[in-house]
């Protein structure tokens, strides 16, 4: 039975279901409801196939290789190779797709009669199909086709709500950035081909020693730019905060939770599989990039009052945390410490899985709120916990998980990352040690700021009083939305409590890779404790969970049955100094983050604009209204992309001169090019 | 046929291209193109006698119809219909044009191009000349402002390639040759229609006048 499930047939069935779901939705586009049910039913079915295949492939440890069709093209083949690493990423893609598709059944209804549901279903299925192909392909050209399917499908999903010009602009920026990234990926692939003579991943790996060290460094830089753009690593992130919020929320969840991880997957595939061994500085560079991305990602998130942009910036932060794990793994491996490298690698994989789950949950929660309030501006929320209690609970769980609060899953993967960094501080020499110290500091800062950010997000959205009429008309979301969110919330808890088991499984994924073949495990399970090294650090999540439950229970018990035992509780209106409590007395999202923004003003460069209107402009004693506008400028746009844009424009305007519009001139160019080509060939 | 005669035919092709560069009258250009195509036809018939391949005779027949009769006929009608007696001017003046022609011919004969012209060592001189006819045809397209001259330049380039292929022993399959000829005949029809329309629209076939399209 297990053999049947992990056989290629199940995986191909998954791919076929996505194809049928997509094409069928397009054919049934005349009827919104049927197109919606069709596309999401097949997406759910395909996800279940993918999930069962990937889960058992990860557990059994077997590799699957196969090709589809008999192409006689010299470089191109539809060849798949699914080892445990691929299976792990297929597992993440299928898992999140499953819950997003369940959620979508209800969520998509608010697009009925407004947009074409068949088109949404088509691109949604193609998008997931593209991601699965990316994670399973084993030939560069096939991979690039899959990468484009994923990118183009996601572009059309970003501009799906095309009546909003901001979404169209965000899509355009995404399209440009993703293709700039693809250009660098192609260059990296061509360099690999030039020195190994093959586009096949396994052949490249076996011939990797033929690649000279300087070329390897160039490939590393190209891969970082190419895949880093897709992952949203700072400074290649500018498309992400615009594009992710623009898409429908279940798509945002997939983009932020899963798509950006395909960049991480390919980095692992190249650095730890294709061109290993690598120099030490690659790992250290990843640590620096990870530190910068995590810290600045969370700082920018703090400045946001658009709930989806806030979540999108947190994706940048979490990609940074994953890079910290991956960077430490690369550094340890290059320095001949495979066991510690395995620890860092496990942390990176675990955080990849955890982030996929809690970020999807948060995006689905945000989508649920937006579908009721029709705005993404948190300043117009408030008090939603009374109207949407389930959504509030699920969003709270997601917020706690992303803030790394125990007993949820985010805590443990960050804890493992910390242990990996601390090990580096203890064991490495001066130069590397300081980078590990800075990375640890950055991670600690990031954790604290993320907590502050989600206190703001949850507080401004769900607590206090409604700040707009939309909120007071909001209703709890439908069953399919709640099922989607509840399942992910439950997973946040289960993966937290079962983190010990997950660590062992993920270590197995690492050990399946050739670079970790001889690495001894640093993490061990001692009862309910997870121990790193020989008592270097230990934690027990079930005990922590028990501690929180007992503490919570005790607080409730003491308050209710001991302190208030002889007191009669009366419910009254809060004393308000004789005035009516209104929403204007609440702290806003901007107000909450103001002090933190001002602390980091050197980096964030905020500008504050005050505006006061008086009842009587002459006397100026009685203000009618006060406005405070707190703006944060994107320093990357000002100091990196705008100068780059100007330079490209200047060069383009000069180059434009050769395009005279005269046919003779064009033929002359061809003539000259021909002569030069002939001479250069014949010169040899 | 002797090599001397083949060389004579190739020299005719070469000289017709030089003439195409010099002439100002469209009818003369068409006449020169007809002569050039006739030389190609004789070369193909020669190949037939040498190899005995009947398909070459068939191709020669097609060349005769398309290049020697149809193409010059189409152009002659076009000139008559639109009264295009004189062609448009060139970008370079005559002395400079001749200098460039001499340079390109010398380049084609230089030892740098010997890997190309030495495919069949016995025909090296002929291949060098054929290569220079290709360069000169390309330059004709570049240097001429008139659309008609440019079209003749393209057809002349095609003739040069055929001549080079014959001397290099690179004759292609019958299907491919027929395909090329069919391609040329269709191309001729389209080009003729286009030229008529361009002339109607702009009142000239000078491509520099077509810059107005951009405005």
From TrEMBL, chain A:
Ranges where the NADH-Ubiquinone oxidoreductase (complex I) chain 5 N-terminal domain occurs: 76-110
Keyword Cell membrane tagged: yes
Main localisation: membrane
Keyword line: Cell membrane, Membrane, Oxidoreductase, Transmembrane, Transmembrane helix
Any one of the GO BP annotations: ATP synthesis coupled electron transport
Membrane topology, as annotated: Multi-pass membrane protein
Gene Ontology CC terms: plasma membrane
GO terms, molecular function: NADH dehydrogenase (ubiquinone) activity; oxidoreductase activity
Residues that span the membrane, as ranges: 6-28, 40-62, 82-105, 117-134, 140-160, 172-193, 218-240, 252-275, 281-302, 356-375, 387-405, 411-431, 443-463, 483-506, 518-537, 543-563, 666-683
InterPro entries for the chain: ComplexI-like_HydComp, NADH_UbQ_OxRdtase, ND/Mrp_TM, Proton_antipo_N
Boundaries of every NADH:quinone oxidoreductase/Mrp antiporter transmembrane domain copy: 137-424
Subcellular location: Cell membrane; Membrane
PANTHER family: FORMATE HYDROGENLYASE SUBUNIT 3-RELATED, HYDROGENASE-4 COMPONENT F
Protein's recorded name: Hydrogenase 4 subunit B
From TrEMBL, chain B:
Transmembrane segments annotated in the record for this chain: 30-49, 56-79, 91-113, 125-142, 148-168, 180-199
Keywords: Cell membrane, Membrane, Transmembrane, Transmembrane helix
Cellular localisation: Cell membrane
Keyword Transmembrane annotated: yes
Classification via InterPro entries: HyfE-like
Topological relation to the membrane, as annotated: Multi-pass membrane protein
Protein name: Hydrogenase
Protein species of origin: Candidatus Staskawiczbacteria bacterium RIFCSPHIGHO2_02_FULL_42_22
């Amino acid at each position: 039975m297990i053999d049947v499930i992990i056989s290629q047939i199940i995986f191909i069935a998954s791919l076929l279901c996505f194809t049928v779901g997509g094409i069928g939705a397009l054919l049934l586009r005349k009827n919104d409801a049927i197109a919606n049910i069709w596309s999401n039913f097949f997406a759910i079915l395909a996800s279940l196939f993918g999930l069962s295949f990937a889960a058992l492939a990860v557990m059994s440890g077997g590799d699957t290789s196969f090709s589809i069709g008999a192409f006689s093209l010299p470089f191109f083949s539809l060849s798949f190779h699914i080892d445990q690493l691929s299976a792990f990423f297929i597992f993440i893609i299928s898992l999140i797709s499953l819950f997003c598709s369940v959620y979508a059944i209800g969520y998509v209804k608010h697009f009925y009669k407004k947009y074409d549901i068949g088109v949404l279903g088509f691109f949604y299925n193609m998008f997931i199909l593209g991601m699965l192909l990316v994670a399973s392909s084993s030939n560069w050209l096939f991979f690039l086709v899959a990468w484009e399917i994923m990118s183009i499908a996601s572009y059309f999903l970003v501009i799906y709500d095309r009546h909003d010009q901001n979404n169209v602009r965000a899509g355009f920026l995404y399209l440009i950035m993703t293709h700039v990234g693809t250009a660098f990926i192609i260059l990296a692939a061509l360099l690999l081909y030039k020195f190994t003579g093959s586009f096949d991943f396994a052949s490249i790996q076996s011939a990797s020693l033929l690649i000279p060290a300087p070329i390897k460094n160039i490939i590393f830089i190209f891969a970082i730019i190419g895949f880093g753009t897709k992952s949203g690593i700072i400074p290649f992130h500018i498309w992400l905060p615009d594009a992710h919020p623009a898409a429908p929320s279940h798509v945002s969840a997939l983009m932020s939770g899963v798509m950006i991880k395909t960049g991480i997957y390919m980095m692992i595939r190249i650095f730890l599989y294709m061109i290993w061994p690598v120099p030490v500085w690659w790992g250290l560079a990843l640590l620096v990039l990870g530190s910068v991305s995590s810290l600045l990602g969370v700082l920018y998130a703090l400045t946001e009052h658009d709930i989806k942009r806030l979540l999108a910036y947190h994706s940048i932060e979490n990609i940074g945390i994953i890079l910290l794990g991956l960077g430490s793994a690369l550094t340890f491996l290059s320095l001949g410490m495979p066991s510690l490298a395995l620890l860092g690698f496990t942390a990176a994989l675990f955080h990849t899985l955890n982030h996929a789950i809690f970020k999807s949950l948060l995006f689905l929660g945000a989508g649920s709120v937006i579908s009721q309030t029709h705005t993404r501006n948190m300043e117009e929320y408030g008090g939603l916990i009374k109207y949407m209690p389930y959504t509030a609970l699920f969003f709270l769980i997601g917020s706690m998980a992303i803030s790394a609060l125990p007993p949820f899953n985010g805590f443990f993967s960050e804890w493992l990352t910390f242990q990996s960094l601390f090990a580096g501080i203890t064991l490495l020499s001066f130069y590397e040690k300081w980078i590990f110290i800075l990375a640890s500091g950055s991670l600690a800062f990031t954790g604290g700021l993320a907590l502050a950010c989600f206190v703001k997000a949850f507080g401004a959205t769900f607590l206090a009083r409604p700040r707009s009429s939309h909120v007071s008309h909001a209703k709890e979301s439908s069953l399919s939305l709640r099922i989607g969110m509840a399942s992910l919330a439950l997973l946040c808890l289960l993966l937290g409590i079962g983190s010990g088991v997950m660590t062992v499984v993920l270590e197995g994924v690492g050990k399946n890779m050739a670079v970790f073949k001889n690495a001894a495990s640093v993490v061990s399970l001692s009862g309910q404790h997870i121990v790193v090294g020989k008592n270097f650090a230990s934690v027990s999540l079930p005990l922590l969970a028990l501690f929180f439950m007992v503490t919570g229970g005790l607080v409730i018990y003491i308050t209710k049955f001991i302190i208030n035992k002889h007191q009669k509780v009366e419910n009254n209106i809060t004393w308000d100094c004789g005035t009516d409590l209104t929403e204007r007395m609440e702290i806003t999202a901007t107000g909450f983050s103001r002090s933190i923004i001002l602390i980091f003003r050197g980096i964030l460069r905020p500008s504050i604009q005050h505006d006061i209107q008086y009842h009587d402009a002459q006397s100026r004693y009685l203000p009618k209204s006060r406005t405070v506008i707190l703006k944060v400028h994107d320093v990357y746009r000002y100091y990196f992309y705008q100068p780059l844009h100007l330079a490209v424009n200047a060069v383009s305007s000069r180059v434009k001169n050769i395009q005279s519009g005269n046919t003779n001139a064009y033929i002359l160019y061809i003539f000259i090019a021909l002569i030069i080509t002939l001479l250069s060939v014949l010169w040899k | 046929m002797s090599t001397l005669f083949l060389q004579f035919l190739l020299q005719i092709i070469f000289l017709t291209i030089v003439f195409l560069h010099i002439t100002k009258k469209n009818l003369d250009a068409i006449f020169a193109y007809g002569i050039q195509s006739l030389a190609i036809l004789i070369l193909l018939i020669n190949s037939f006698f040498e190899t005995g391949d009947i398909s070459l005779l068939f191709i020669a027949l097609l060349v005769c119809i398309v290049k020697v009769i149809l193409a010059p006929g189409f152009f002659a009608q076009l000139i008559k219909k639109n009264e295009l007696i004189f062609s448009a001017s060139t970008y370079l003046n005559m002395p400079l044009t001749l200098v460039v022609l001499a340079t390109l011919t010398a380049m084609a004969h230089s030892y740098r191009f010997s890997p190309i012209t030495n495919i069949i060592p016995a025909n090296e001189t002929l291949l060098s000349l054929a290569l220079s006819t290709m360069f000169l045809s390309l330059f004709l397209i570049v240097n001429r402002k008139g659309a008609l001259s440019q079209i003749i330049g393209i057809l002349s380039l095609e003739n040069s390639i055929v001549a080079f292929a014959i001397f290099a022993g690179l004759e292609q399959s019958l299907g491919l040759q027929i395909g090329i000829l069919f391609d040329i005949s269709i191309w001729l029809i389209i080009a003729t229609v286009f030229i008529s329309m361009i002339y109607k629209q702009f009142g000239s076939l000078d491509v520099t006048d077509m810059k107005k399209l951009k405005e």
